[in-house]
UniProtKB/TrEMBL annotation:
One of its GO terms (molecular function) is transmembrane transporter activity. This is Major facilitator superfamily MFS_1. Keywords: Cell membrane, Membrane, Transmembrane, Transmembrane helix, Transport. It comes from Sphaerobacter thermophilus (strain ATCC 49802 / DSM 20745 / KCCM 41009 / NCIMB 13125 / S 6022). The chain crosses the membrane at residues 45-63, 75-96, 203-220, 252-277, 289-310, 317-334, 340-357, 378-397, 403-424. GO terms for cellular component: plasma membrane. It is found in: Cell membrane.
Length: 448
């Protein structure tokens, strides 16, 4: 009898249990579900090109932050670079959304990616020629910000055209996974490049990485795009007001934007927070700074793959992500231990992706095609365009008080936004289904 039981147990293990489904088959189905958008050729080209480019961007971010601190030894100067990089997004990202609804998105991305590559090359040359000064970094940061103001809304709205509405949550989560894979790999590469070859090499590497994106865009098949809306004509300001009005009067969209207004402005300032913690709280070097970014990237990557598998951008998940992010940011402000800080950053990375991936997916699904670029530009504006307010505030508070107190104040402001979002949700029970669904757009949305 024991032998028969053993055979039965072996059979169940081989088939994955009493259900008779082989474990290998379940694994294959799970992988197919997690990476569903990879079945689309255009999206594969986009994803792998972005993986190389975003990795290069993280390599440059580490180098740029360290370059600024080496030139100035000033947390305020570091905040100023971030401010100038994001100020064009504050001024122009909403207009970038209008152009995303008006122009072919692939062509817009070809131009913006080319400009970003040239910006990295120029900065690398200035360093190699030993003539770089802080004002050079200020100007080139503003150029990068201007290109990004048109690139980001277009790139966000381009996702649904590549994969179709059904796979948007999966594709957005996979985009987050590539971003965080780059965040894991990029900082370590950047720190190693600085230590081994000097600070100019990371900028050259980033310039080369943009070639992958441009080639991928050129290889796409436009005839295979999904849900391409007709170009939106008419006065730019009128079209901009139309997108804002839709977002304000649609409670499901407004809830996302309320949360992002606070968390995006005060919480997602990691290009300022992490180098300050590395240098002034933990007293580590460039490799240690890269390690902090890598720790956060690990948590973010795991969360991104989980969100891709679930592919269900519910309102509850949105609030869970926002709440956990806020609490963990507060804990980060209290930590003075390197191991504890690394652990908090892993969890903080996970919470940050649950929130942003869910927010992004909900907006893309809720927004009609004719308004998607403008709705996503509001998301980009609140997520990145408000960075001048957050980064300057953080830099000023860190320099006048302390880094830990500054991060703590940012966490409190995020908590204010979470409470306001919760109250708004309670007062608008008619805001729509808990799982995002498409809504029709009136004909006037595309009229001249």
């Amino acid at each position: 009898m024991m032998r028969e039981q053993s055979r039965e147990q072996v059979g169940q293990q081989a088939t994955g249990g009493a259900g008779g489904v082989p474990a290998s088959s379940r694994l294959s189905r799970s992988l197919a579900r997690t990476f569903a958008s990879f079945s689309n050729r255009n999206y594969r080209l986009f994803w792998f090109g972005q993986l190389l480019s975003v990795t290069g961007t993280w390599v440059q971010r580490v180098a740029q932050a360290w370059l600024v601190l080496n030139l100035t030894d000033s947390s305020f100067a570091l905040g100023m670079v971030t401010t100038l990089q994001f100020l064009p997004m504050t001024l122009f990202s909403l207009f970038g959304g209008v152009f995303a609804d008006r122009l072919p998105k692939r062509q817009v991305l070809l131009v913006t990616q080319f400009v970003m590559g040239i910006q990295a090359l120029i900065l690398g040359l200035l360093i190699s020629w030993d003539v770089v000064e802080i004002w050079h970094i200020y100007i080139l940061a503003a150029v990068l910000g201007l290109a990004t103001a048109f690139d980001n809304p277009t790139r966000q709205a381009f996702v649904v055209e590549m994969v179709g509405p059904k796979n948007v949550p999966n594709a957005v989560a996979l985009n987050s996974s590539l971003f965080n894979t780059a965040r894991i790999v990029g900082p370590s590469i950047g720190g190693a490049m600085i230590a081994a070859f000097g600070i100019a090499v990371p900028f050259y590497a980033n310039a080369v990485s943009f070639v992958a994106v441009i080639v991928g865009l050129l290889m796409m098949r436009p005839e295979e795009f999904y849900d391409v809306p007709p170009p939106v004509r008419g006065p730019v300001l009128a079209r901009l007001r139309e997108g804002i009005a839709y977002s304000v009067r649609t409670p499901a969209v407004a809830l996302v934007l309320i949360l992002m207004a606070f968390l995006g402005t005060f919480g997602y300032q990691f290009t300022v927070i992490l180098p300050l913690i590395a240098r002034y709280v933990l007293d580590t070097g460039a490799l240690g700074f890269g390690g902090l970014l890598t720790a956060m990237g690990i948590g973010s990557l795991v969360a991104a793959l989980g969100v891709a598998y679930v592919s269900s951008p519910t309102e509850r998940l949105l609030l869970m992500g926002a709440g956990s992010f806020t609490v963990l940011l507060g804990l980060l402000a209290l930590s003075t231990s390197a191991p504890l800080t690394v652990g908090i950053l892993v969890l903080l990375g996970a919470g940050s992706i649950v929130f942003t991936a869910t927010a992004n997916s909900r907006l893309q699904i809720l927004a009609p095609g004719e308004l998607r670029g403008r709705v996503m530009s509001l998301y980009i504006f609140l997520f990145m365009g408000t960075a001048p307010v957050g980064s300057l505030s953080l830099g000023y508070l860190a320099e006048t008080l302390s880094v830990r107190i500054a991060v703590g104040i940012m966490a409190l402001l995020c908590a204010v936004g979470f409470v306001l979002g919760w109250l708004y949700r309670a007062r608008h029970p008619e805001h729509g289904p808990r799982t995002a669904t498409r809504r029709p757009v009136q004909e006037s949305s595309v009229s001249d």
